[in-house]
Amino acid sequence: MRKVMDQMGRSVNVPEFPQRIISIVPSQTELLYDLGLDNEVVGITKFCIHPEDWRKSKTIVGGTKQVHFDLIDELKPDLIIGNKEENEEGFIKQLSEKYPVWMSDVFTLDDALDMIEMIGDITGRSRNAEGIVVDVLVAFEEIKELPNKGSVVYLIWNDPIMAVGKSAFINDMLKKAGFDNALSEHRYPELSIERLIELKPDQLLLSSEPFPFKEKHLAYFSKALPKTKISIVDGGMFSWYGSRLIKSAEYFKGL
User: DSSP 3-state assignment of 104?
Assistant: First the structure.
């Protein structure tokens, strides 16, 4: 075992080469796949949709807010990988009493790149992680001159209406994509339709996740904001902070 620090500043004892990994964060599950850890990953969540075949070959241990402790115990993990924002603090604390739990804490692209390198290190895939980081940097270098797309409100939930504030990872992705966040609040503030109208954003982005905005929602907001350009966007491209970032930059270019 060796002692490492996670992104929350916690000291975690991990095996030199973990052989039974559980991921409880979808974007980090995809990262583990792209790091070449098919045999080592034994458990994922019901929200881990990439890669698709892992949903059949790996044990589903629950979601990101609740897990089945009995299934985790049966898997006998030697490493669990989670995230401060996405996972519920109580069950993380409970798991940490029995297993090595490494936590990420991502607010910016730089944080995401650090996370990729750190997970590469603790899983024995440093070289693979370095390759992914280089690919992400190259992809985002190509879009650094994107024209400004104006002010934006990015919605992640409906009823209540919830948007992305200044301190969220998605906010940094909005900047990279050429948008100016119209909100001054942090994290994920609730908005009334009246507040949304007052903001008069140039663009309103309706995310495909975690709330699955559809055409009917686009029609509703179009009536309230007739002068705002409203689009449904792929939420994974804005919120997944693992290897999917390579695809995100190209997606932003096409918006």
Answer: strand
